[in-house]
Design brief:
homotrimer, 316 residues, alpha/beta, Rossmann fold, 2 domains, five-stranded parallel β-sheet, four-stranded parallel β-sheet, 9 strands, globular
Chain lengths: 316, 316, 316
């Protein structure tokens, strides 16, 4: 198994179209979890022969959760971390340095760079010049591939399969980057039926819809959550992003249209699951947290093991 | 000695009412100092069988000194650290995530969380949901238990005892969180006489006074520092906190009422000590620093060893 | 070879007047690079007998590049790092704590302190009170000795010598701290001819000029870059610092006076080199990057190995 050759830069979710690769990542993530919980440091460690590898986080916009998750993953693998929480105040950047130059210099200091940037396509540009692997940790409204992978991993782990699923994607489907990637990865599986549940103003974008049509994936765009609650194996809920609305009235109207609460829960199948990329605000009531079907905190924890697996594959 | 069972969450100073526990912490802190200075890494290390443990600092208000002290303690124990210097800009928090959700997620990434928060009671709330130990590193005007422990440890180390002491607490006794905790812990000792030396506007709060009365601890509220300088074994000085005063005139009037300088020093006993939680501004003159009775920088250094001891007890 | 006794605090470039010491640092930096690239962890490690040493970065102004370079160097040596990215918001500092007190406290937590400060002379003041080594990572318009050392190391590595060189220093010679230090170190070598190429308003300061006259170093102050491009072994280019100009018109007029592009490159010797302390803005055209004479990204990478060598000498 030549892991090294499979992933170098990790830029977009399309790299994971290959089902075998996806399964390999999931299998490695499970190994990581078992070794981590069992304290089997030897199995976790990246390599025992060379010096400790160094991961640099280069974040042009804050995402503390993602940063801490990558840092914790790297440390658990026996690696080390150097961090920038706020790269725009990176002194070089304020002085006018280009992303490309910043990447070239940072790549001298680190063995892998985790890049978060506000502009779509930044990771691709970075990867073109970087001698060390670039991991895209979100670029603007573009890709956030490790989130998509941990979502799929959670589905596999919670439901025991990634095929033959009815999935409701709920909330902000227009701006929610995670639902686009998830729809893309689910489209590669067999027997999938998707329900897109959102107010009309923040529907799934047309390019995703066209892609699903091309791929002949079954889907419906609907507005009534209750109508599908009893059918789905999974509700994937997203936050209505306040920062996206110019008019606060529009936000206030939409933010409470779909709230997962005990009433919705009572309609759902026993073995169904609720996921959410977090942070959640009001779209899932706190009363839901204690139900075993509430998988969102386990989903966050899975992010750690998926990132450990990816780092291990990338760093060899 | 089952350390593990003695402390899990470290939330408030009341947890250290048990004198035996206090002595156990102090003894472990001394061991840590000896091993650290002697470079005996094996004795420091948290555990040699499992992976390196990870500490997360989650600071909702800055306290660089406390953060660095905890981080240094954890690293000396062979552990690792993930950090948030400024949690309110934690992207999830700005998006409306609750403390409870943030704790749930962070606890997936770390083996122990050091929480600093601006609201009293936050650590208690965090401890209720966290599967990993929470250490309170200060919550608003509430508790800062590790500071109280390092203060007591310094008293024991500098004066050779924590009983039979006359102690002057000087400065801002109303807002100074550290003096409340210290008064509480001193009240558990024998033969204590306390002098509360402050301007009338920033006197010791009534709940502390009532507690001392109940516990039958001898104390006096006075305004004249010179009158007690020759009697006390310890002067514990605190900064008048500019940020507490709406009227800058009040601050300017009070800030220089009590200044420890060579004149005060000349009145004090040879074996007495001066302590201060730091930072100091003008309330201790720089000329005092070189006197062997000036214990405040040694006190700051003790914080490291007390925190190493606490982490070792908590993480087992 | 008693490395320990040679450097304790690293404050100013004058400490490296001794050519033998300079060569020792360069030789150790080469060793570090070979061991790091070969993964020979044992050769890198600071010490295998004691606990991991801790480096504290204390930055009163941002310099992410310098911070990450030091942190990466320390981690590669098997050490650990505690960091303050923004010390002015260091809670103690905002409360009025002096630099001297901050240093005293931080020195309890770390084995070496890397200090960046906006005031000239800060590192010297810090070194006077610190029980642990202070490394000056830039103090105001004053010194930045590790940058000067990595510049000299790069010259040695790229050109094979530090003697018998014709060097053009180009751009902002008035405010550019690096060119002052480089001129000083080059003045200690044999057979040096310097060309100072700058607009009249931002010429080399008079104290540097007087020093070179005293040392009988050959130099010329000129305004025409093309006239020397074919003669020099090295062009050391600096950014015109926008932040130094009150009048944006002055900045706009000067910023494009000297631009290294393919035209300049075509005039230069085959074995010549172009260096730049980075970040660069427009003063070196991107088209130059792919030419083997463009040494500036290798120069940045050298910073890592020079800092590893210095930390190893300082920490023993």
């Amino acid at each position: 198994m030549k892991l090294n050759s499979k992933i170098h830069h990790l830029i977009e979710v399309k790299q994971f179209k290959d089902r075998e690769l996806l399964e390999e990542i999931f299998s490695l993530a499970r190994e990581m979890e078992v070794a981590d919980k069992g304290g089997e440091y030897g199995k976790l460690a990246l390599s025992q022969t060379s010096r400790r590898k160094i991961l640099a986080t280069l974040f042009y916009e804050p995402s503390t959760r993602t940063r801490l998750s990558f840092e914790s993953a790297m440390l658990r693998l026996g690696g080390e971390v150097i961090s920038t929480e706020d790269a725009p105040s990176f002194s070089s950047v304020t002085k006018g340095e280009s992303l490309v130059d910043t990447i070239r210099v940072t790549s001298s200091y680190a063995d892998v760079i985790v890049l978060r940037h506000y502009e779509e396509g930044s990771s691709k540009i970075a990867a073109e010049v970087s001698p060390v692997p670039i991991i895209n940790a979100g670029d603007g409204t573009g890709q956030h591939p490790t989130q998509a992978l941990l979502d799929m991993y959670t589905i596999q782990k919670e439901l025991g399969r990634t095929d033959n699923l009815e999935v409701g994607l709920v909330g902000d489907l227009l701006y929610g980057r995670t639902v686009h990637s998830l729809a893309y990865l689910l489209a590669q599986q067999k027997g999938i039926k998707l329900y897109f549940v959102s107010p009309g103003e923040i529907k799934m974008p047309r390019d995703v819809i066209h892609y699903l049509e091309e791929q002949k994936v079954a889907f419906e765009e609907i507005t009534d959550l209750k109508g599908i609650a009893s059918r789905v194996d999974l509700l994937y809920v997203t936050r209505i992003q306040k920062e996206r609305f110019r008019n606060i009235k529009d936000y206030n109207r939409m933010k409470r249209v779909y709230v997962i609460n005990n009433e919705i829960l009572s309609l759902m199948k026993k073995e169904a699951r609720i996921m959410h990329p977090l942070p959640r605000v009001d779209e899932i009531a706190v009363e839901v947290d204690k139900d075993p079907r509430a998988a969102y905190f386990r989903q966050a924890a899975n992010g750690l093991y998926v990132r450990m697996a990816l780092l291990k594959m990338i760093l060899g």
